[in-house]
Amino acid sequence: MSQGLLMGVALAALSQRAPAESQLASSLGQVLALAEGYPQLQADRLFIDLQVNLRDCEEHLQMARRYYNGAVRELNVLVESVPSNLLARLFGFAAGEYFSVNDHAERQAPNTEF
After folding, report:
1. Residue 83 domain-assigned?
2. 91 FRET partner, CA 20 to 30 A, in 8, 11, 16, 82?
3. pLDDT (tens digit, 9 = 90+) per residue, 18-60?
C-alpha cells in the first residue's frame, strides 16, 4: 500500500479512535479507583507490574500520537506546497487532521501511583 492510501485509511479511522481512547481511560480510572480500597492489592507484585506496564503503554501511545501528528504535518506540507500540490489535487489527496483531545481531563495520563 502506498503511504497516501495508508494516510487516508488512518484519517477515516481517526474519528473513531478518540472516543475509544476516552472509554479506555475511563475504564482504567475505575480499575485504579477500585484498587485504592484494597491495600493488599497495592502491595502485590503483579499489580505493581500492571502499573509499570500501563505506564509503558501510555508512553508508547504518546509516542505514536506524536509520530502520527508528524506524519500529518508532512502530508499537509506536501499537499499545500508547489509542485506536489498539483499531484495531490490530481489524485484527490487532502490535508490531514491532527490527532487531538479537546477535553483537558482526557489529556492527563492515568495516575498509577498509590
Report:
1. yes
2. 16
3. 677 767 777 777 777 777 777 777 677 888 888 888 888 888 9
On whether residue 74 sits in a domain, the answer given is: yes
DSSP class of residue 92 equals: T
Instruction: Report the alpha-carbon distance of residue 18 to residue 20 in Å, rounded.
Output: 5
pTM of the model as a whole: 0.59
Is residue 112 a part of any domain in this protein?
no
Please check whether residue 110 is in contact with residue 54, taking contact to mean a CB–CB distance below 8 angstroms: yes
- Could you list the residue range(s) of the whole structural domain that residue 34 is in? 3-107
113: in domain: no
C-alpha separations of 10 from 4, 5, 67, 82 in Å? 10, 9, 13, 24
For residue 56, the tally of other CB atoms under 10 A from its CB is 10
84's CB contacts (< 8 A; 6+ apart) are 78
